[in-house]
Design a protein that fits this description.
Strand content: 35-45%
InterPro entries: HATPase_C_sf (IPR036890), HATPase_dom (IPR003594), His_kinase_dom (IPR005467), HisK_dim/P_dom (IPR003661), HisK_dim/P_sf (IPR036097), Ig-like_fold (IPR013783), Reg_prop (IPR011110), Sig_transdc_His_kin-like_C (IPR004358)
EC number: 2.7.13.3
Mean pLDDT: 86
Pfam family, one: HisKA
Catalytic activity: ATP + protein L-histidine = ADP + protein N-phospho-L-histidine
Number of strands: 67
Strand order of the largest sheet: 54-60-59-56-57
Radius of gyration: 57 Å
Keywords: Membrane, Phosphoprotein, Transmembrane, Transmembrane helix
């Protein structure tokens, strides 16, 4: 029997765990000024204060701030104990020999100028301090005054105990027989006396109560500021509590081996569930009492766990075949001792299905899992899942070019063969089932939705989401965890990525569970993260900020690295407990029982470091212009995981200033702040909320005198005055100058009037000259053209008559006279038309639809007889529309001259006239087979076309015809091309616009 109890004890020790996290701070770690901590108490704001023999120390959960002779001007740095009241802002302390009197107010220590009054110190507090530090633990509290937190006090007499108010008026008294070694103390402002044997009584009910068991050789420490009564041994620390009008000692902390240090003072923070231990030579110890349980199989070295699943209301089973409760290992079925742990499922008959490489094994409940059946597959199994219809779903990994399909097995008949779903030919590593019985499958690159009833498949591209698990919450929303892209809400066939925490722990999210308060618990490679689902949905709707609460090894985990990539990747028991697998053990906890240390305390900003020197301010900070750097420090007491603090700051210098995330030091620095009144905003995200707590600081930096408004106004007045005077002087100068200019203008105006008069006369004269020219042209047309025409007709008649005679001289002379008269007539007619054009130049740009055929055919008729006389054949080809926008008179003159030149230079040959319209350009070419144009003449006309200057005209050498053509083309902004070869002919092309 004794051997049985010994084995049971060994088993219990094997299952026992260290349910606390221990941290130590000392002078060796440069946190404390000295290793002897004599007194510990919180202040009104939540900071922890402690006295040492080398300074007074304030602790905010991460930083220690020391107040000593360098900061407060103390004579001595050997502080004794804290006294006063923790509820109101009235803590105080003093140094050895009462050399210095220090008060703690508004989160800082201040030396009072008055010397310490020996009659003002609290004798009871003084006795408690020395009793705590006395290992003999003797009490002599007769005549002691014990103050409550509201100012009343009890007085201990030999035969009675009296209660006075803060004005020293007696309120009541009870009969009481004082006994030495009886301890008197307050618990929740109620006076209690406790004897060494465990008997105790209270002032409100002085009758003897039940006994309290106190271990032999146990020592007592009473924290009079927090009214906490501790009893401790070498291995245990107890705190006195009251419930149902009874007192009892509750175990706070226990170690397996005796402590190697002496406890001097204790403080237990109920909110953070932390025990602060002050020692004589080891500094400060902080014990975090955890609510997370770590489960291991003590018989195995490898406690690396993956898939787990509930097997009953209070128990779960691992993929190794180990059955655990939330406290310990129940049984080891050894179902999968050496295989993979990435998949486990339990069907409706409680049969256990475990995957291992390419094998799926079903262990039968009716034989207590001692018999099994195996299914062998060609591909490695990726995941297994049992749906609501008791069907086992099997996904496979893609290896090489092997084709894989999702398979199912009817769990009602485990002996049935697998059924392959051919329209799902993708690798699957996770399954989930919606309330409408659709199966969701995580596949590389896709989320597959399979409608079991319709047997239809929909594939949604995953983009960057390498899905590791799928979670369907109580409201039927779908969430996916990924390996490297955080986690996302899947809605309306789209993935909505949730924000990552400030430290990017959620980048690799493994698994999600939802508690009764609609909070998600997400496992990662860097601990466990809790978030409010409402907070996430608010982000989805309006991009509100999200608060993430982080738990890590400081909460009792053996490792921060949780495991994923398996199914199921966590378990939720019906008793409310969550289980998560990790690299070292299984983490079990109840969300309601987890001690959440939330950053709910107020934060304060009234301390700065200005160019290396510390100073304090209230709401408004006044800075000189000559500072280099100012650092704002945030006072914020928080004793939880500092990853849960979200501070941001913004200085309103510009409209587009953005919020800056602050680092762990909770401070922000600025340089070169411009003068003026600015507001510094600092905000903290509230726990499990989308709102902020905001504090603002007014920063006032004075302007230099020349930057102030009055100086600018004065300067503006001076400048304005100078401007007015300058403008006036300039006005007078300009007026005088304008008067002189006006005189000059009047004189020049008179000259201009005279000039205009002369110009008008010249204009009249010019008009008379133009009129005379018109009359001259009319006279030429009438008086010259008519005789010339008659002469030409007569010469023609003579020529025709001369052909009858045989006299060759008469024939030749008649022919010459006929040709000369006809040529002279054409020249005069051409010249007259040319002159009319320049006199009536206002009509040059008046274009209208004209028949090009009519113009050219008229000219051909005019030269027909001459051409036939020279044995010339004239051909006309029109490739343009019959109606073209042009000036008929100018075009006729140009064609007349070109055709005339061609006939003159051609004998027994051909002349071809072509017209064309290309891209709003009219092309008219006259090509002959005559003697050709010498290069000298051709170059002359081409150069003249580029630079038409009348003083360079050589009409006497080259005739008037082409000069007229060039001049008319210049007026029409046309172009001329000449192609000629000696003895072969000449082609002249004119190009004019059709618009």
């Amino acid at each position: 029997m004794n051997r049985f109890y010994f084995i049971l004890l060994i088993i219990q020790l094997g299952f026992s765990q260290q349910n606390y996290h221990e941290e130590w701070y000392s002078a060796d770690t440069e946190h404390l000024p000295q290793n002897s901590v004599k007194s510990i108490a919180p202040d009104k704001y939540g900071f922890i204060w402690m006295t040492t023999e080398n300074g007074l120390v304030r602790f905010d959960g991460s930083n220690f701030k020391t107040f000593n002779s360098n900061t407060t001007g103390n004579i001595s740095n050997r502080f004794l104990y804290l006294s006063g009241n923790t509820i109101v802002d009235s803590l105080k302390t003093f140094t050895e020999g009462y050399a210095d009197n220090i008060i703690i107010n508004k989160r800082k220590a201040i030396k009072i100028k008055e010397k310490y009054n020996l009659t003002s110190y609290d004798e009871y507090e003084n006795l408690r301090f020395y009793t705590n530090n006395n290992t003999k633990q003797k009490f002599d509290l007769l005549h002691s005054k014990i103050k409550t937190q509201n100012g009343d006090y009890y007085k201990i007499e030999k035969d009675k105990i009296l209660l006075f108010n803060k004005n020293n008026k007696k309120k009541t008294e009870i009969t009481h027989q004082y006994k030495p070694n009886t301890d008197y103390f307050l618990l929740n402002n109620e006076l209690i006396w406790l004897n060494n044997n465990g008997d105790y009584s209270t002032f409100d009910n002085s009758e003897k109560k039940n006994k309290i068991f106190i271990k032999k050789n146990a020592k007592i420490i009473y924290n009079h500021l927090t009214q906490q009564y501790f009893v401790y041994t070498d291995n245990e620390i107890f705190i006195l509590k009251k419930a149902t009008n009874k007192l009892y000692f509750s175990l706070l902390h226990q170690v397996n081996i005796p402590r190697q240090y002496t406890i001097k003072c204790l403080f237990y923070d109920i909110k953070s569930n932390k025990l602060f231990i002050g020692t004589d030579n080891k500094g400060l110890g902080i014990i975090s009492l955890n609510k997370f349980s770590i489960l291991n199989n003590f018989k195995k070295v490898d406690n690396n766990y993956y898939s787990i699943i509930p097997i009953s209301n209070e128990n779960f089973i691992t993929a190794k075949g180990e059955i655990f409760s939330v406290n310990q290992l129940i049984a080891d079925l050894k179902l999968n001792t050496n295989g993979y742990q990435f998949g486990i499922a339990i069907d409706k008959q409680k049969n256990i299905w475990i995957q291992n490489n390419t094998t799926l094994t079903c262990f039968f409940k009716n034989t207590n899992y001692k018999t099994s059946i195996k299914n062998e597959f060609k591909a490695t199994i990726g995941s297994i899942f049992c749906d609501s219809k008791n069907k086992i779903w099997i996904g496979f990994r893609k290896e090489g070019n092997m084709k894989v399909f999702v398979a199912t097995i009817n769990a009602n008949d485990p002996n049935s063969k697998p059924n392959y779903i051919r329209n799902i030919d993708k690798a699957v590593n996770y399954f989930a089932e919606t309330k409408d019985h659709k199966i969701l499958m995580a596949s590389p690159g896709n989320l597959i939705i399979y409608d079991v009833i319709k047997q239809k498949t929909k594939k949604i591209p995953c983009d960057k989401n390498d899905i590791r698990s799928i979670f369907i919450s109580k409201d039927n929303t779908i969430w996916v965890c990924t390996y490297s892209n955080g986690f996302s809400l899947f809605k309306n066939n789209r993935f909505y990525k949730m924000p990552i925490d400030n430290y990017s722990y959620l980048t690799s999210a493994h698994c999600i569970n939802e508690d009764i308060d609609d909070h998600f618990w997400i496992s990662t490679n860097k601990g466990l993260i809790e978030v409010d689902k409402k907070n996430l949905l608010a982000y989805y709707n309006d991009k509100s900020p999200v608060y993430y609460h982080h738990y890590d090894s400081n909460n009792g985990f053996l490792t921060n690295e949780f495991n994923g990539g398996c199914q199921p990747c966590s378990a939720k028991l019906e008793n409310g407990y969550f289980i998560y697998p990790s690299l070292n053990g299984l983490v079990a906890f109840h969300p309601k029982k987890v001690n959440k240390i939330l950053p709910t305390n107020n934060f304060y900003i009234n301390e700065i470091e200005l160019d290396g020197k510390t100073s304090y301010f209230n709401d408004t900070l006044f800075l000189n212009r000559n500072f280099n750097r100012v650092k704002f420090k945030i006072d914020f007491p928080y004793f939880g995981n500092h990853d849960n603090i979200y501070f941001e700051a913004k200085l309103d210098l510009n409209k587009n200033d953005k919020w800056i995330h602050l680092n762990d030091e909770k401070e922000i620095s600025f340089t070169n702040i411009p003068p003026g009144v600015h507001t510094l905003y600092i905000r903290k995200l509230k726990p499990f909320s989308s709102t902020y707590e905001i504090e603002k600081i007014i920063i006032n930096i004075p302007f230099l005198f020349y930057e102030k408004l009055w100086f600018k106004i004065f300067l503006a007045i001076i400048i304005t005055s100078f401007l007015i005077i300058g403008i006036r002087l300039r006005y007078n100068f300009i007026k005088k100058k304008n008067d002189a200019l006006e005189q000059i203008i009047n004189e020049r105006t008179a000259d201009l009037i005279s000039t205009v008069t002369n110009l008008k006369a010249a204009k009249n004269n010019l008009s008379q000259e133009v009129l005379q020219q018109k009359k001259l042209i009319g006279t030429i047309s009438h008086d010259i053209k008519s005789p010339l025409k008659f002469l030409s007709i007569t010469a023609k008649h003579l020529h025709e008559k001369s052909l009858i005679t045989n006299d060759d001289n008469i024939k030749d002379n008649a022919k010459i006279m006929h040709e000369s008269a006809n040529q002279l007539y054409r020249f005069v007619e051409n010249l007259v038309d040319y002159s009319k054009i320049f006199i009536e130049h206002k009509n040059l740009n008046e274009l209208k639809k004209e028949s090009i055929d009519s113009i050219i055919n008229d000219k051909i008729k005019l030269f027909k007889n001459i051409a036939e006389g020279n044995a010339i054949v004239i051909t006309y080809n029109n490739f343009a529309p019959s109606q073209i926008n042009l000036n008929k008179k100018i075009t006729g003159i140009i064609i007349h001259n070109l055709l005339d030149n061609a006939i003159k230079n051609t004998v027994i040959g051909a002349i071809t006239i072509e017209t064309n319209l290309i891209k709003n350009k009219i092309y008219i070419s006259v090509e002959d087979t005559g003697c050709g144009m010498p290069d000298e003449i051709k170059n002359y006309y081409l150069n003249l076309q580029k630079n038409f200057e009348t003083d360079k005209l050589a009409i006497q050498n080259y005739g008037l015809g082409l000069h007229m053509v060039l001049e008319l083309l210049r007026l029409l902004k046309g172009d001329l091309k000449i192609y000629s070869k000696e003895n072969e002919g000449t082609k002249v092309t004119i190009i004019i616009d059709d618009n």
